[in-house]
Structure formats: C-alpha cells, structure tokens
Design goal:
The complex is a heterodimer of chains A (325) and B (271). Chain A has 11 helices and 13 strands. In chain A, 32% of the residues lie in helices and 26% in strands. A 6-stranded mixed beta sheet of chain A has the order 5-6-7-3-8-9, sandwiched between helices. In chain A, strands 11-12-10-13 form a 4-stranded antiparallel beta sheet. A 3-stranded antiparallel beta sheet of chain A has the order 2-1-4, with helices on one face. In chain B, helix 2 packs antiparallel against helix 3 and helix 6 packs parallel to helix 11. Chain B is globular. Classes of the chains: A alpha/beta (325), B mainly alpha (271). The interface between A and B is large, with 46 and 42 residues.
Chain lengths: 325, 271
C-alpha cells in the first residue's frame, strides 16, 4: 500500500433530486470536490440541508451522482458496488433495524451478510452493547440504537468507514465512548468519513474537514487551517462621549450600541494599534476581549452564509446575491 | 476489545459467487422467519387462512358448474387450493412485510451492505414461500391419501406451475408494496389481485365452463396460467399447445413484474 494513497476521490460531484431539467428538481450537491487519504479522518460539516448526507450517500454507493466523478478505493461505488461494499462499513443517519429482532439476532443476520465478519460478540463488545444482546431492538434507547448501528458498520473490519452523524442522540458519555472507538479505529489504519453538526466532534476527531453550505464546500483544511482563515475578533465598550468614529481608520470597527467589534486577520497588529490609541487618548476600553476564531465561530459564520470572500456583509444581502448568481 | 485490527485489506476483490449469495440469503431468511413467528397476524394468515379457504370451497363446490369440464368437485377444490395457498400465504403476507421493512428503513440499511437488491427481496420472501410450498405438498399428499385422487400426472409441470406461481406472487407483492403506504393499507391494496384471481382465474368456476370469448380474456390474468399449469400437471389432459400457452403467459407475467419492481420499487419511505 503506497503512502498517501487517496482512498476517496471526489471531483465536481453533483446530485439532483427530481426531474433533471426545469424547476421541479432540487440540486442538493452542486459541484463538490475533495479527496481523503488512507488512514485519514475526514469530517463534513454543515447545517441541516447543506448536502452532507446527499454527498455521503453517493460515496456509499447508495445513489448515482447526476454529475462529476467519485472513486472509492479506486472503484465507482455505485456501478461497482460488489467490489467496494465488502471493504467499506456504513452507518446511516438513521439506522434501520427490525424492531422485533433482538440485538444478537440482528447482529447474526448482518454477520451472515458480511464477508470476513468479526464475531458478533466482539462487535457488540466494541460498542458496549454486549450486555443488551438479548433485548429487542424496539426496547433500545436512541443512543443504544446508534451504537448497534455502529457495531454493524464495524462487523466487516472495513478499510473505509462512513459515519453519518454517529453521535446524534447519544449522551455525553456515549459520545466520548464513540469518539474513543473512532480514534482507536483510525489508529488501526481505518479511513473514516464523518458527517456531523457537532463542532466539538470535528475538532476532536478530524484530520481534515470541509464545511458545506447549500451544496458546496465553502472551506476545507485542517481544523487549524480553517480557523486561521477566519478573522479574529476584538470587542470592547467605549465610554460615553467617545464615538467609535474616533477610532483609527485602519481598524474596521462595527458599532452595536456602545459596544464595538473589530474583525481582523492580524490580531496582534490591530490590538497593538487599538491599545496605543486608547493610551494616547486616555480612553478606557471596558470589557475588552480579543480572541482568535474558534472552529465554532468559523462554522457558524460560514454555515449561515458568510463565505471567506464576504466577511462582514449582511446575511440577507449575501443570500440574495447568492440566489441571483 | 481491540479495534486496531481493522483496515488490513480483508475481503479483497469481489464478494461474489453462489456460495456467498446463498449464505446471505440464508441469514436474511432466518431473521425473517424469526419475525414471521413473532407476528401473530402473519402467522394466522400463513397457517390458518389457507385451511379455512379450502374448507370453505369444499362447502360451496356443489354449486360449481362442472358439467363438461371433466373435473370432479374434489379435483376443483384441491387444484384450486394450490394457487390459493400461494396467494394467501405468499402474496398477502409479503406486502405488509415489504412495507414495514421499508418504513422501518430496514431495506435501506440492508442495501448499504453486500446484499444485492434481489437478495434483499428474496431473503424476505423465503420463509413464507417455504411455508406455502410445504402446504402445497400437504395438499397433494392429502389428495392422494384421503380423497382417492390420482398422484400427479405430470409432476414436472405441477412443480413448474407452483414455482412460477410462487415467484409471481413474490414479485407482485413487491410491486403492490410500491402503492402501499402502511401495513394496514396493505389489506386494501391486496384486494384487486386477490379478488380478480379468485373470481376470474378459474379457481371457483373453471374456465372451461365459461363462454369461449370470456375464457380467452380471463387467460390473460396473472394467476390463470398458474391455475392451468397446476391442473395439467396434477390431473393431466393439457394439449401441448395449451401447456405452452400457459407457460408463456406465466413467464410473461413474471417478466412484467420483474420490470415493474426494478423500475418502481422504493427502498425507503417517501419524504
């Protein structure tokens, strides 16, 4: 196996629901490109409806793309399903298990349908469901169902694991436990593609991530790169009688009542300038707060409309512009 | 408890082959059998309905116009019993089964794995098909042992008719599931084919006792060729031309339903 081999390659992926032409259809994925190297953990972030699941379903071979090219382990996941499936594991956003079967019966059925399956007891143990083996699926909690789903995805010792919102519905402990497991799998060489809307999850697990909005990838990179691409923020309140207009022009300040917010790509320089100005003018900046962008801020800003090119613009104006494009 | 042994390139190549396919079918069928046994309504439909219907037919058969058809009342009841079992056990049980698996997202989840699409449908059908085939065998045995019927004249034709009928019922059940939203509404969506087959396919009134023109139209119904093949196979008497026509019609219906299922079957609920 060559080092740095690309396990997943996606270029110009489009996915359309409904009729191919006219207004009846809806294009959920609009030209998405990325690749995932072997052993990497790649996270797709976005709000609901951003196109994460629509993208992942194409990678899993569940649906045919309406445009672009997708390769998983060197094969077309839809047309060469039989070649790809034995090497991947899939956990859908919502698991589908017959409610009248027990956990053990469900696992046995899946094991029989999976080549090179590990023992079912081992798979259940990995997710901590072994003590619940004889319980009917309908009696499981939402979190337990997610863990059963994960166990089934792990049965075939997959080279590539697709996890669509794996921790939704889990409590804090279940989430930590799943993270620990995913990290362990990654350490063992499994390539993981994860969708999530928990920022903490992506920050915790992902080697690289991409943030999607309205069917497109807006930014991608390591968590550090993504946050570095966002402006830092300085906030403070000016004393009465000191209008924000007196601030140095080089600082792009926005007023919210008496509060002022400055966004800057060069936090240290801007802050120095501000503080020098404040000393010179004898102005007290109350509630002074300066911070680099967190992934959460980056996400909120991007996911709700602000691309890197449109920082600071008003949300509705931006959306209108996007619609007109 | 170790998760680190993954990603070692297991399962390289195609997980194909008849053996693998058979293994998958068996696992799925086993789970479906468990579900069948746990579902009281389904068990009732599968085990008691056919018996009730055959008994009901026996009580009404005296009124059937059998003159000139060469069929005795017993012949009519027993040979109609086989297609009736196929409808009641396979068709009526499979529609709600497919619908509930679809609505519970089981079908969608199964399709993420190595199962082929046809294996998902066939695996779900195997338990009821097996139950139906066993009941057909019981009917034939009971005919010979208790009712002084002759053993099947052409067993090959009988078996072929039963198998074609079973396949047809599985496929039409899948096709009917397309227009069925809930397991409850399956009781309604199943009615057209059920009624048309009981009335028009020669089960209660043999086609030979009907006007020629009407009989020719009724031969176009999906279950008619199955009924005919079963009669020719059990009682004998089919001209080669008639047998071929029935085989052709049954095969045509099977092809049409394969097409319909491939084209329209939905693997997940409508959003």
């Amino acid at each position: 196996m060559e080092i740095g081999e690309q396990v997943i390659e996606v270029s110009g992926l489009r996915r359309r629901y409904g009729p191919a032409k006219g207004d009846g259809g809806f294009e959920a994925v609009r030209g998405v490109s990325f690749s995932v190297a072997r052993g990497e953990l790649f996270a797709l972030l976005g709000t609901n409806g951003a196109g994460k699941t629509s993208t992942v379903e194409v990678l899993e071979g569940m649906a045919e793309p309406s445009g672009g090219r997708v390769r998983v382990l060197g094969h077309d996941p839809y047309r060469e399903r039989a070649r790809v499936r034995p090497r991947i594991g899939v956990m859908l956003q919502e698991g589908g298990f017959s409610s009248d079967l027990t956990v053990a019966e469900t696992a046995r059925m899946w094991a029989g349908c999976t080549s090179g399956a590990r023992p079912t007891s081992e798979a259940l143990e990995m997710v901590g469901l072994a003590p619940r083996a004889d319980v009917r699926v309908k009696q499981l909690s939402g979190g337990e169902r997610r863990r059963l789903d994960l166990a089934m995805a792990l049965l075939g010792r997959p080279e590539v694991l697709f996890l669509d919102e794996p921790t939704t519905g889990l409590d804090a402990e279940g989430r930590r436990e799943t993270w620990r497991l995913v990290r362990e799998l990654r350490k063992g060489g499994t390539t993981v593609v994860l969708t999530t809307h928990y920022l903490e999850e992506a920050e915790e697990l992902a080697d690289r991530l991409a943030i999607m909005r309205a069917g497109r990838i807006v930014v991608s990179g390591t968590p550090a790169e993504v946050t570095a691409s966002r402006p830092s923020r300085i906030r403070f309140t000016l004393p009465e009688g000191v209008p924000a207009a007196r601030l140095p022009l080089s600082l792009k300040a926005a007023e919210h009542g008496r509060g002022v917010e400055i966004r800057t790509g060069r936090l240290q320089e801007s802050l120095t300038e501000l503080l020098l100005w404040a000393r010179q003018e004898g102005v007290e900046l109350t509630g002074l707060d300066a911070r680099s962008a967190s992934l959460e801020e980056a996400f909120l800003e991007i996911a709700h409309g602000g691309g890197p090119d449109t920082v600071g613009e008003d949300d509705t104006a931006r959306l209108a512009k996007a619609g007109a494009r | 408890m170790s998760a680190t042994d993954t990603g070692s390139g297991t399962g390289v190549g195609v997980a194909g082959g008849a053996a693998a396919s058979l293994g998958r079918l068996r696992s799925l069928a086993r789970a479906e059998l468990t579900l069948l046994v746990r579902n009281r309504t389904a068990m009732f439909t599968a085990l008691l309905m056919p018996l009730a219907m055959v008994l009901f037919m026996r009580s009404t058969v005296e009124q059937a116009p059998l003159e000139g058809t060469g069929l005795s009342p017993t012949d009519l009841v027993m040979t109609s019993g086989i297609p009736m079992v196929l409808i009641l056990v396979v068709y009526l049980n499979l529609i709600p089964a497919y619908v509930s698996r679809r609505e519970e997202l089981v079908l969608k989840r199964l399709r993420t794995g190595e199962l082929r699409d046809w294996e998902v449908l066939a695996g779900a059908a195997l338990p009821v098909v097996t139950v139906a085939l066993a009941q057909c065998a019981v009917l034939v045995a009971a005919g010979a042992a208790l009712l002084e019927m002759t053993p099947p004249d052409r067993p090959d034709l009988l078996v072929l008719g039963v198998l074609l009928g079973a396949v047809l019922m599985v496929l039409t059940a899948a096709a009917t599931a397309v227009i069925t939203r809930t397991t409850e509404s399956a009781q309604i969506t199943a009615l057209p084919l059920l009624m048309v087959s009981l009335v028009g396919s020669g089960m209660f009134v043999p086609l030979e006792a009907m006007p020629e023109r009407l009989a020719d139209v009724l031969r176009l119904l999906p279950m008619t060729p199955v009924v005919e093949l079963v009669r020719y196979g059990w009682l004998g008497g089919g001209e080669p031309g008639e047998v071929l026509r029935a085989l052709g019609a049954a095969a045509a219906w099977a092809l049409v339903s394969v097409f319909a299922v491939r084209r329209w079957f939905r693997w997940e609920p409508r959003h």
